[in-house]
Amino acid sequence: HKAIAQSGSVLNPWAWGQRNGLQLAEKLGKKVTSEKEALILLRGLSDVQLYETSLLLTDDFMNMAVRRPFGPIIEKPNPTAFLCEDPALILATGRYNQVPQILGACSNEGLIYEFSTFFRVSADFQPEKQIIPWNVKLAAESKTLWQKRLSQLYYKDGVKKSGVFEQIGDVGFYVGVTESTKLALKNAKQPIYLYKFSYQADMVKQLYKLMRLPESTAGVAHGMDGNFLFPCRWIPGVELEVNAEDAKAIQSVVEIWTNFAYTGNPHTQWEPVTDLENLKYLDIDKETQMRNQLLKERLDVWANLTQNTGFSLTALDTPAK
Looking at the record's lineage, which domain of life comes first (predicted)? Predict the structure, then answer.
């Protein structure tokens, strides 16, 4: 077996929900006293009723400082439980499924927030208050200091979209991906390969144009690497044109991923990560090459924060807002 995790990690703040069955029941005007009663109630609803009920709980996907209402949780031990322990601890102690892994993300993950009203940055966006994800625990005084330090990292010249995209990309993707890589590497018995997808193909530029993004838009947004593995229709009824250069890149990416899926080895210049202090990675671009120190300036600041605080996913019973 092998594992490929593209633009996602168990440590990303958006990947976790809350234990909120009782709160959902209350929103429906029903009084229940146990999760079992809440489950029976919710199972009795139609799909439309479930959807409408979900809208009663706020889900601000962009705000990484707030735990989302829906998603996986760490369960209390029981015969049918899937996950009963903090994944950060499982990774750090090497008790995960030891198989070859590929992890990585796109060069401008945060750009996805320009793609739809669901993701778009709201007018009342407050970067300093939303910059520390909910699963990094800090005392109030330390939190204030770190909020200011991180705000300087992204907004030293004022709040601009480029800084917003970097913040969202780092907090929502890169911090979790790189920190989970480091945790897994401590006791890894199989190779771990890290990548950054930087190739802004012509078909990606076509999509940006259709989304009415400026021609100067840089980087590869979240999910764009999927275009190099599968036929992706981002807009119903619209086929993106694939030129010769893009077709060559598609063939190369498919070959690398397929080699890995078959053998656990990409069979290219791609070297596995071996040093916690130097996260070497494959930069997939027009000229694909190995590089060192993935997003070093920004991720070093985050590494300093997480090393002193760690991740905590175990707040099981936080009620949804």
Answer: Eukaryota
| Residue 295 Rama label (left phi>0; alpha psi -120 to 50; beta) | left
Structural domains present in the chain:
3-13+101-295 (3.40.50.1820)
Residues 198/294, Cβ–Cβ less than 8 Å: no
Residue 19, exposed/middle/buried by CB under 10 A (0-12, 13-18, 19+)? middle
Within 10 Å of residue 310's Cβ, how many Cβ atoms? 16
161 CB neighbour count, 10 Å cutoff: 14
- Stretches in the chain below the pLDDT threshold 70: 58-61, 116-125, 312-321
DSSP for 211-234, please give it. Answer: TT--TT--S--TTGGGGGTS---S
Could you give the 3-state DSSP secondary structure of residue 22? helix
Q: How far apart are CA 30 and CA 181, in angstroms?
A: 44
211 burial via Cβ count (<10 Å: 0-12, 13-18, 19+): middle
| C-alpha distances in Å from residue 42, one per residue of 45, 47, 52 | 5, 10, 12
Per the listing, tokens 């993950």 go with 109
The string of pLDDT tens digits covering residues 312-321 is 665 444 443 4
Q: Are 135 and 129 in contact (CB under 8 A)?
A: no
